[in-house]
């Protein structure tokens, strides 16, 4: 089962970013509005905890969403819900005596989620967030979110390592699935550009819009 390998790479990438950061660096800004590095790490930590619950929650098939259609509910425009979640995350992260406390919990939880992913039946289904997914599709959604947030974490950390190639490939495949079948990714975009622009982190340029044509109206593909 290869899905857990990409997830392991995605989570290990985040660990490599945060594990040696000082409490001061954990309070640097990220691409996520209002969130410091420690705040965003807590958000990803909650996702790893959700992974553990989901992988221990087998469900009867068939799946009702896959690794691409799962994201269609998470389109931009749900500002009130996003603001409420952002505020909860900030208060929860602030409850730790020091920002490094979030790192300690992450370093315990992320490897456990990866081990659970490796032990899961790849032909089985699980339930999470009101949906039933095949195990490989769940792992792909977790990997995609981790890779995107890895890029969010390092905006003010120029020396931080980049996400791994296998994990990035999963996230890119997700964006390809969300993009119109007739659309062609602009030739000047590398994978990082694609992920940042597909998720609205970086706006499209006029040249991007010309190359994308009508498909520019699909952007951002997810928020």
Characterise the protein shown here.
This is Maleylpyruvate isomerase N-terminal domain-containing protein. One of its GO terms (molecular function) is isomerase activity. Keywords: Isomerase. It comes from Micromonospora mangrovi. The protein is built from eight helices and three strands, in the order ααβααββαααα. The protein is mainly alpha-helical and 223 residues long. It has a single domain, classed as Four Helix Bundle (Hemerythrin (Met), subunit A) (Up-down Bundle), CATH 1.20.120.450. Strands 1-2-3 form a three-stranded antiparallel beta sheet. Helix 1 runs parallel beside helix 5, helix 1 crosses helix 6 and helix 5 crosses helix 6. It is globular.
* Strand line-up across the major sheet: 1-2-3
Helix content: 40-55%
Count every beta strand, where a strand is a DSSP E run of 2 or more residues. 3
Based on secondary structure, the structural category is mainly alpha
Mean pLDDT over the full residue set: 94
The H/E string reads HHEHHEEHHHH
What is the domain tally?
A: 1
What shape does the CA trace take? globular
CATH class: Mainly Alpha
Let me know the CATH homologous superfamily: dinb family like domain
Query: Under the CATH scheme, which architecture would be assigned?
Result: Up-down Bundle
Q: Which fold name fills CATH's third level, the topology?
A: Four Helix Bundle (Hemerythrin (Met), subunit A)
How far apart lie the N and C ends?
29 Å
Radius of gyration, in Å, reads 17 Å
Number of helices: 8
In percent, how much strand structure appears in the residues? under 5%
Largest sheet: number of strands, sense, barrel closure? 3 strands, antiparallel
Low-confidence stretches: none
Protein name: Maleylpyruvate isomerase N-terminal domain-containing protein
Keywords: Isomerase
Domain Mycothiol-dependent maleylpyruvate isomerase metal-binding: 8-153
Organism: Micromonospora mangrovi
């Amino acid at each position: 089962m290869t899905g857990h390998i990409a997830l392991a790479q995605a989570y290990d990438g985040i660990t490599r970013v945060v594990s040696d950061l000082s409490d001061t660096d954990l309070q640097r800004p990220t691409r996520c509005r209002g969130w410091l590095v420690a705040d965003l790490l807590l958000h990803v930590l909650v996702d790893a905890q959700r992974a553990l619950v989901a992988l221990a929650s087998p469900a009867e098939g068939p799946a009702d969403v896959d690794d691409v259609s799962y994201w269609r509910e998470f389109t931009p425009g749900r500002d009130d819900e996003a603001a409420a979640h952002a505020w909860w995350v900030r208060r929860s992260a602030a409850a730790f005596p020091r920002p490094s406390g979030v790192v300690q919990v992450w370093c315990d939880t992320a490897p456990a989620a990866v081990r659970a992913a490796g032990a899961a039946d790849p032909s089985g289904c699980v339930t999470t967030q009101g949906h039933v997914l095949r195990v490989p599709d769940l792992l792909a959604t977790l990997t995609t979110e981790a890779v995107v947030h890895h890029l969010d974490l390092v905006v003010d950390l120029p020396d931080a390592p980049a996400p791994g190639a296998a994990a990035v490939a999963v996230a890119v495949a997700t964006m390809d699935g969300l993009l119109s079948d007739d659309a062609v990714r602009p030739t000047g975009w590398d994978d990082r550009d694609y992920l940042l622009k597909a998720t609205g982190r970086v706006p499209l340029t006029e040249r991007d819009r010309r190359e994308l044509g009508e498909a520019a109206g699909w952007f951002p593909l997810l928020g």
